[in-house]
Design brief:
Layout (H helix, E strand, L loop, with lengths): L9 E9 L6 H10 L4 E3 L7 H4 L14 E3 L15 H5 L3 H16 L12 E6 L5 H7 L4 H14 L4 H16 L9 H5 L3 H10 L5 E4 L5 H14 L5 E8 L4 H10 L22 E9 H7 L5 E10 L10 H12 L11 E3 L8 H13 L10 E4 L2 H4 L6 H15 L1 E2 L19 E3 L4 E2 L7 E8 L3 E9 L13 H5 L6 E7 L2 H15 L4 H12 L8 E7 L2 H18 L5 E6 L2 E5 L5 E5 L11 H6 L1 H16 L6 H4 L9 H12 L1 H21 L6 E4 L3 H8 L5 H17 L5 E6 L3 H10 L4 E8 L2 E7 H13 L4 E3 L12 H10 L13 E2 L13 H7 L5 E2 H9 L4 E4 L5 H10 L6 E3 L7 H13 L6 H4 L43 H12 L2 H11 L6
Parallel strand pairs: 4-5, 4-6, 9-10, 9-14, 10-12, 20-21, 20-28, 21-26, 23-27, 28-29
Antiparallel strand pairs: 1-7, 1-8, 2-3, 6-7, 8-15, 11-13, 14-15, 16-17, 17-19, 18-19, 22-24, 22-25, 23-24
Length: 998
Amino acid sequence: MTEDSTNPAIAIVGMSMWSPGAHDLQGFWENVLARRMQFRKFPESRMSLDDYWSASPDDVDKTYADRGAFMDGFEFDWVGRRIPERTFKSTDLTHWLALETALGALADAGYSRGSVPTGRSAAIVGNSLTGEESRMWSMRLRWPYVKRALAVAAEARQLDSSVADALAETMEEVYKGPLVEPSEDTLAGMLSNTIAGRICNYLDFNGGGYVVDGACASGMLAVATAAEKLASGAADFVLAGGVDVSLDPLELVGFARLGALTRGDMNVYDASRSGFIPGEGCGFVALKRLEDARADGDYVYATIRGWGISTDGKGGITKPRAETQAEMIRRAYSGAGFAASEVAFVEGHGTGTPVGDPVELAGVQQAAQTDGPVEARSIGMTSLKSLIGHTKAASGILALIKATMAVNQRILPPLAGCTDPNPAFGTEAPALFPLVNGEIRDPSEKMRAGAQAMGFGGINCHVAIESADAPSSKLTPSQDVRTMMASYQDTEVFVLSADSAVDLATRARDVADLAVPLSVAELLDFSAKLSRVISPTAPFRAAVVAGRPAQLAERMRQLAVICENSAPASGQVKVVSNEISISNSVRHDIGFLFPGQGSQQLEMARVLIERFEWARELATKADGWLEGVGAEAITPRILRNPVKSADAAELAKWKRDLAQTQFTQPAVALASLLWFEYLRRLGVTPSAVAGHSLGELTALYAAGAYDQKTLITLAAAKGAAMAVSGGGNGAMASLTCDRSTAEAIIAEAKGYATVANLNTPTQSVVSGTKDAVDDVVAIAKTRGVSAQALAVSNAFHSEMMNEAERELKSTAPVEEQVDSLTCPVYSCVEGERVQTPLALRELVTKQVVSPVDWVKTVSGISQEVDLLVEVGPGRVLTGLTKAINGTDGVRCFPVASKSGRDEDFNVALAAMYVHGAQVRWNELFDGRFVREFVPADQKVFIENLAEAKLTVTSAPEPLALGTSGGDPAAALADYLSRRGTFLVDVIRADVGSGATSP
């Protein structure tokens, strides 16, 4: 493909949207950046789960999905818009939502109803099936069918004809009550095409107005159709969009029969993809030819440079094909002026289905490599559906609006719900990568992207866009973008306090009730709200960690039961699970453990660096300190994004590089330092500290032995010295046995080896020459002792580190002695509290050659504290501590067992809170994108008349039992004869048993 564009550029000069969780451009963009997922339980006023939900796939009239993404707050001002009341009430909501949103795009483009040119202006709308109100209203005209069915049922049950007729009469009143009477507006108000016609009517457009129906591709097809209309000169201005308000049994049961809905989370482009969650929404863009927009002085968000459409042909009606999707993309870029391989990202269809996602990824890859090989991991994949679900006919236009915002702001928007990328990224799509973190680009650069949508029937549509003017201030978020993109968490911590167990139980049940109807995004807001109302002096404290509303509700109910039946006594902590804990009048001491080599991970502490300015500044300083002593900056090695590795081999190389001791030591020290500083800012400080090997350097910093710069440069000096000591021929291995057994095995081995670490009573680590350690492993296995070589670069804590010890004695950037410490430090070599004044240089150098006795260290610090926290990457020390202390001893919690696992930190913070820590909760939410919490019952959601409370306006006479001349006895006899002998036998048995009336 060439740089010459054969398509006239189409300018996007205005945008407007309504979606779950947002109805303005800035709010929508903020939700995208912060990955605010809008999924919530179906409101009873929309579709009763009691009537329509079933866990069994065999219930053909029901759906197994219980969640959706719902708009709130939309109320059309028909009076202000001067729409006749009868017309308003006879018209499906989709018409008014589309009109209001189209007017928003018009206003954003700088026009009003009176100023917009009308002669060559058009409206093209994507829609399918109009909306659920139309389907509901049409039921009124099917009353004769219902009446006949009722009559047949009455006859089959031998119901008296007069009773049946009276019942039918009353039922007709009840049945038709909520349904609008047909009028001259009804037909037009229920048709799909008049959605566009209504916009043209309201604005007096004469350039054409109609609806395109490509099922879930409708909104994108509307844009492509509009672009073609402008390119051909058939119109000068077009409002193009899509609208979908269809969350009723027709679609929910239909998609369930296809197996397209997920029972769990929506994991787009993830290995665990299982289907989508349905949503609703509306979006419009205002379009002109670019030359006209420039002549009119319009602001241009972005330009449409190409559009392509394909169909899947002989493939199944609902089965996608990669090759035809690739052809759609090729057509879009054939006249765009740039190739598909040059886009920064693709806003994908991304339904999260087992078949759809890998097919889509393969199609993008095939199109991108049309002109030859494409750089690995150069095209990001993202999808709005990961936040608001599948909005069907509106999904394409909302996806385009999101992509337009992204290229306008020069930001690659993050993808939610992808934690284990689809295997297709490693096979069919090596040029692509899931945009799990998002990326910020230079605001002056030219950014290109694609957006695509696919629909039933095999219809596919792709639109190629390019940035135009400087980033719009209308889209500028209210918070730092980098911080916002790090705001999302899989879980939140919910804290409570009370003066009594009874009050705490009541509070927990109230929280449970509030939690049920919340969206996932609102959990953060709710968590922040709860943290602001706790009392720091209340005796009872409780904390729950949860990631989904239903999970929060269930755990709060469990908490309430504990409070009611077995509340903790004064001074007691009761741990129901890692996620549920409660305490009564507790002020315990907390100890910090700092990890050493072997705990390093790619992206460790990344969330802190991305979320907080102070953490970014500290990481930058650390790189500078390292470069100042001739070492490499370490953050580039830490922050390598695994999803952007070309293949498994490159990812393994990145991990091996980070495992080199000269890199591992400053890297782990920096990550631990960042977590320690975060806890300090939260108001949590340790009563005692200890560190495993390298971790002892961080423990000494935490106790005030030296400053941050000294910690980082000392770790670097230690790593550099240990990397070359002993000729670099060392190795280490872990043996599942006690020290004496390990020493006996070593005695049989050839060459030098020694016990370097006693990690638990049954785990010893051996260090020595490579040949000797290999021999130790072989001998251990013959004795039935589990043994495994460790991925380390030398023989640490052995005499092979003598050279490193000598080097550090002269170069370690520490004082010879410190006179005092801010808290006790337990030496990992001696297993005891270090004494002050402390011979600091001797301590940090002797440790290099000395064995680590972690069993004694943990046993010692556990005598001084009530809770331990592993402050740094991994959970190695947590596991070792459990093996040492047992299940009844002092517990240890990691803050980050793996990068991105926020549940660890929340569980640890919850434990610290119930143990008495005075947490500064405002600091916890400082780096998060929190909206004001509004309970779901205070939001206005769209309601379906089928769920309205049915009433009888008139009071009908009670139905008689029969028609026997008004004689009650005769009527009863007639009734019993028609009902058979069963009731007579029951009455006789009752009377015969001596039963009396009350």
